[in-house]
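agent> fetching stored inputs for the succinic acid docking request
agent> found them:
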Amino acid sequence: MGIDVIRTGAAVGAEIRGVDLSRDLDDGEFDAIENAYNENGVIFFRGQSITPDRLLLLTKRFGNLQLNTFGETLGLPDFPGIVLVSNVEEDGREIGIKRAGENWHSDMCYTPKPPRGTILYAQEVPEIDGLTLGDTCFAATHAAYDALPDAMKQRLDGLIAEFDFAARVRAVPITQAQIEAFPPVTHPIVRTHPYTSRKCLYVMRDDCTGIAGLDDSEAQRLIEALADHIVRPEFVYRHVWQPGDVLVWDNCTVQHKAIQDYDLPLRRLMQRTTFAAESAPT
Ligand code: SIN
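agent> prediction call returned; pasting tokens
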């Protein structure tokens, strides 16, 4: 059976059909998947049933595993490369990262080399009488760049933004040791995707704390205007999860946000892996 790539019709996202991720993928199959990934920014496979080993093998086809500081203590037992994203509690203890990613962000933008991409494997999805909750939204940063007026494109050319992990303290509990492990870093506001050569915006409200050469208030105004522009509805794909979905996103082409519209006793359980960029955006 061949591989079909079915676009969502939104600015990003495609479903891949005709692939069983529980078996080995040959190079031709993986090339087709990787092309669809580069082109569409988000790809997903429905109805999968895979072991943790399979999830790690798939991840390593895209790039080396990259661990997230929030997952250090919330990994799948015996599989430290797999982080649990979940609201489930066992013996009074949260088994995974709860309320992960509830603000628009791109994973680990506070590191010098942010990861190429991230995989979520949905095991339990909250629903009430067939109404699914806990969606994830993805915003197309290349479409947002393309839609900017020429004057703004010229203004952004060469601008460098500062990203500071410490700013997260406003949104999530973080420790002093974590803050010290991630001193501020800089990235260009416009990054060129290493595979598609498309220009992508790289700015978000919480993590992005300044712009080189601009005073604080001017930088904040520009950060907020761009961050809001990126997530306009016309650039967003909203993924409605089904148990068995394996979804892979590209941290250059999209920003994402988890919709936290559920709580226990409704359960959500995802396994997440993250992979490094061999060729970084420039
Ligand atoms: C994340 O930002 O990694 C979590 C996304 C989700 O749980 O939908």
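agent> quick read of the result: The chain has a mean pLDDT of 93.
agent> awaiting further instructions
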